[in-house]
Design brief:
This protein has 442 residues and is an all-alpha fold. The chain has one domain (15-431): MFS general substrate transporter like domains (Growth Hormone, Chain: A). Helix content is 80%, strand content 0%. It is built from 20 helices and no strands. Helix 2 packs across helix 6 (125-155), helix 13 crosses helix 19 and helix 15 packs antiparallel against helix 16 (342-356). Mean pLDDT is 81; it is low at 1-12 and 436-442.
């Protein structure tokens, strides 16, 4: 398969050419998901810091916060629709053209969020505009991750598929660093009044530059060898969504459940903690953002290491055992977060996201790809990832806010949820059975 890898229309014959082709594909997948996650995390981070004050009536702080997080959840509504849409055409006409479209939609919607007037200026039209742009973001994001993962996975040598499929996952870590880093920089350089008035908009508007870079790189790519052979042999499915639901419904269900713990770790420790630690524990915003940025930097290194490890020991095994470890660590981590010590809270975030999450998140991409055959892989992976997100990730900031409130601003109900979610993920991965990997997989 690797000998079919191409770039700019040429087929690499030598080993150096083959390696350059694979690395270009991996980098293209990386930069696209970096932009995607920069956009996504930027919005989510500011939902509990800025948007609840600027885009919703501020009569009740808790209600405004819940409404801001509701717009976060709204973005997930169109993700399964986007996953089904882009998955269908990605399995019908190819991976590359859909990736160019998803990146364009995501980047433009993010840029426009930075231009939306506040509630004080235009009233109810402000949150409605934000919701509309979030729906566009969600629709585009529904097809982005699956396509980026498949480009890297289907070009990679079989014995290194875990490693190369993790490059879009590294994009999350870089997007996390860039988004929280941008907010930290603007928060430090500007007064609170300046940041609230216009500073936060700069972080959204600069995404147009990242979009241009991403499109330039993606337009240089060609289709994956696996899909090219599929199309040449007339094996493209007419209705891949119906085929994958009929033939692979068990893998879809287990994939959704596997996302429960993985998504809980990401959403709680890297996103919800921004509002919990600043509003309830009383830790300065810049310190929390700095800790999340540091966790992202660590994740840039630990994610590919964990994915390469999965190529040797098996993806399901590593995913399941690491999920159990993270579940067991939930209560100690939440004790550190709620202790009131900025140092302990920062260490907890770096451990939870940068270290313990990596062997869950790193192998996940290849593990999900291996659940589905090539003719329905884009559709299958997108449905698992995006429907899993709307079920288990979208409500989490709201659920976390309620659990902490019901627990008298203590985090123990929330810690219990994280522990339970990780156990569910471990069991689901264990029940997946033999995947379609061409090497030993647990």
């Amino acid at each position: 398969m690797a000998n079919d890898a191409t770039t700019a229309g040429a087929t690499p014959r030598s080993e150096p050419e083959r390696l350059r082709a694979i690395r270009l594909i991996a980098f293209a997948s990386l930069i696209g998901t970096t932009i995607e996650w920069y956009d996504f995390i930027l919005y989510t981070s500011l939902a509990g810091l800025i948007f609840n004050k600027l885009f919703f009536p501020a009569n009740d702080a808790v209600v405004s916060l819940l409404l801001a997080y509701a717009t976060f959840a709204v973005g997930f509504v169109t993700r399964p629709i986007g996953g089904a849409f882009f998955g269908h055409f990605g399995d019908r006409i190819g991976r590359k053209p859909l990736l160019v479209l998803t990146l364009s939609m995501m980047g433009v919607a993010t840029f426009l969020i930075g231009l939306v007037p506040t509630y004080a200026a235009i009233g109810i039209a402000a949150p409605l505009a934000v919701i509309a742009l979030r729906l566009i973001q969600g629709f585009a994001m529904g097809g982005e991750w699956g396509g980026a993962v498949l480009m890297a996975y289907e070009y990679a040598p079989p014995e290194q598929r875990g490693f190369y499929a993790s490059f879009p996952q590294i994009g999350f870590a870089l997007g996390l660093c860039l988004s929280t880093g941008a907010i930290t920089l603007l928060s430090s350089a500007l007064s609170n009044e300046q940041f609230m008035a216009w500073g936060w908009r700069c972080a959204f508007l600069v995404s147009i530059v990242l979009l241009g870079v991403g499109l330039f790189i993606r337009l240089t790519l060609v289709e994956t060898p696996e899909f090219t052979r599929l199309r040449a042999n007339y094996r493209v499915r007419k209705l891949p969504l119906l085929d994958v639901v009929r033939d692979d419904w068990r893998h879809i269900l287990l994939g959704w459940l596997a996302r429960m713990g993985e998504g809980a770790v990401f959403t709680i420790y890297s996103l919800y903690m921004l509002s919990y630690l600043t509003a309830i524990v009383g830790i300065p915003r810049t310190l929390v953002l700095g800790a999340v940025t540091a966790a992202g930097l660590v994740l840039v290194v630990t994610t590919p290491l964990a994915a390469a490890w999965s190529d040797r020991v098996g993806r399901r095994r590593l995913f399941a055992l690491s999920s159990l470890v993270h579940g067991a660590a939930a209560f100690p981590l939440f004790w550190m977060l709620s202790s009131g010590s900025p140092a302990l809270a920062a260490i907890a975030i770096v451990l939870a996201v940068g270290v313990l999450w990596a062997p869950i998140y790193g192998p996940e991409a290849a593990m999900l790809c291996e659940l589905f055959a090539t003719p329905v892989r884009y559709t299958g992976v997108s449905i698992v990832y995006q429907v899993g997100a709307i079920v288990f990730l979208a409500p989490l900031p709201i659920l976390a806010t309620l659990l902490v409130t019901w627990n008298g601003n203590q985090p123990w109900y929330l810690a219990g949820y994280v522990a339970l979610a990780c156990v569910v993920s471990a069991v689901a991965a264990g029940l997946m059975g033999q995947t379609r990997s061409r090497i030993a997989d647990g």
